[in-house]
Amino acid sequence: MSNPEQIFTEMNGRITKEKAAKINSTYLFDIGGEGGGKWHADLTKAEGPYIEKKDAEAKCTITVPKAEDWVAIATGKLNATSAFMQGKIKVKGDMSLAMKLQTLLS
What we know:
Elements lengths: L3 H11 L2 H7 L2 E6 L5 E6 L8 E2 L7 E5 L2 H8 L5 H6 L4 E4 L1 H6 L1 H4 L1
């Protein structure tokens, strides 16, 4: 079973300069539960690593209270939109940035 740390490491490996430039913003992922923590994604810089385990200002904050829900969303077992509707994900800040997240997960 994956944990949030592994998920963010994998996401970091999939982010290309082109993907980062297309999104060109910052995110804070606040993952609760076992294995949780805060990860900051800075997609405004030209070179990686784009995602680091730290707390920092971001234009969009994604809060997922349960680590297992984040893992399910990131691995495609749980649809992000339905997770949002069920209250498993909370978004603060720029909602349009949250919609762009799918490109990072795939």
